[in-house]
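Quick one:
INPUT:
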């Protein structure tokens, strides 16, 4: 159980949060980007407040960012300016994450789980745990909000709670050994001790599928109709279990894709079934490479060697049909099947150098269609651009 908690604290929280306060933020002039989705424009803003720690969440009109202690700050997709905020900067504590779905934005921090109306930021409902308990990162899907209540010690019981998104009514609760639920359609998946993925019906909480313990599944990379089990923790002896593909409906093992020599750390699946994956040296996370695997055949399509490796940055997103990562302060866009060494029409595309994408600022990427937001975690700043 300790390994599961440690993985959440280090990997999951670092991957889903961005603490941005509304005070002291200013925006540059906005303009339309070529091919940008409706509502999104190019802009750059500087943000003051706590150092960022993860990703904001894009919608058609907003960029929604969790804010300490259990709040949300929503920015205009057109200008980057703050449109509304709720629960931000009120009290002490750290935000553990946010989620958006339908007309709700949900944020958690400490004992508080808070939902807001996406349209205008009005507080929809709030739930508070007893003293000594805290919420982990929430997940939202199909009109339900999921969050795990846990205590300060590894041995404390952990409870998966399901709430109705519209009014916060508690629908059911179940024991779990995880902190971070994964919501997908009408199901919620938890990763239990021993690397076993368990899927529950979101309406009832009853188990409807579980992965084979013989094929560890402590983390998932997902795309419509596809699920890949991976392991992002540092394993004993720097050995890592194989990446395996599982059936989305049953979670049953379907095939082994690859046996990694280094630690998997971030990945996306393209619409035509290519997994673009980052692997890093377990002893030196600043070094690593990108690799592409065909999910149908298991064939390795390409891997990076050299300057395209990404300068130790393992954030990757799918912008339209292309994979985008950061290398040398620029955004690198590649055809997932052809890779970064293709030529002609399939050649990689590179953006100008952006200050927010500099390695020293520990940048992250957020994608909405073919539009991207670069988030600098050190010296907080946000830049909205069209994907190269």
């Amino acid at each position: 159980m300790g390994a599961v908690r440690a993985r959440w604290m280090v990997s999951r929280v670092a991957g889903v949060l961005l603490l941005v306060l509304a005070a002291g933020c200013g925006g540059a002039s906005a303009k339309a980007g070529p091919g940008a989705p409706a509502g999104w424009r190019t802009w750059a803003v500087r943000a003051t407040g706590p150092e960022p720690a993860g990703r904001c969440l894009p919608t058609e009109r907003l960029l929604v960012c969790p804010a300490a202690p259990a709040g949300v700050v929503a920015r205009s997709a057109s200008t980057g300016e703050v449109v509304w905020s709720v629960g931000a900067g009120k009290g002490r504590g750290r935000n553990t994450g946010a989620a958006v779905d339908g007309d709700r934005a949900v944020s958690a921090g400490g004992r508080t789980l808070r939902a807001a109306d996406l349209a205008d930021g009005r507080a929809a409902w709030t739930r508070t745990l007893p003293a000594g308990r805290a919420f982990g990162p929430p997940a939202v899907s199909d009109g339900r909000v999921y969050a795990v209540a846990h205590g300060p010690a590894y041995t404390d019981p952990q409870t998966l709670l399901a709430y109705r998104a519209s009014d916060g009514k508690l629908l059911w609760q179940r024991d779990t050994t995880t902190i971070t639920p994964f919501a997908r359609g009408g199901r919620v998946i938890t990763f239990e001790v021993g690397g076993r993925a368990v899927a529950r019906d979101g309406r009832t909480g009853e188990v409807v599928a579980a992965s084979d313990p013989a094929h560890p599944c402590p983390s998932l990379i997902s795309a419509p109709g596809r699920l890949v089990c991976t392991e992002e923790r540092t394993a004993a002896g720097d050995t890592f279990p194989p990446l395996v593909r599982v059936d989305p409906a049953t979670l049953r093992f379907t095939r082994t894709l690859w046996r990694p020599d280094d630690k998997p750390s971030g990945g996306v699946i393209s619409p035509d079934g290519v997994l673009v994956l980052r692997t890093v040296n377990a002893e030196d996370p600043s070094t690593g490479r990108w690799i592409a695997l065909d999910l149908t055949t298991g064939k390795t399509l390409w891997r990076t060697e050299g300057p395209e490796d990404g300068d130790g940055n393992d954030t990757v997103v799918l912008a339209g049909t292309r994979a985008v990562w950061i290398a040398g302060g620029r955004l690198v866009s590649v055809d997932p099947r052809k890779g970064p060494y293709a030529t002609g029409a399939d050649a990689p595309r590179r953006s100008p150098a952006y200050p927010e994408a500099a390695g020293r600022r520990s940048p992250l990427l957020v994608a909405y269609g073919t539009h991207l937001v670069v988030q600098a975690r050190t010296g907080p700043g946000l830049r909205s651009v069209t994907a190269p």
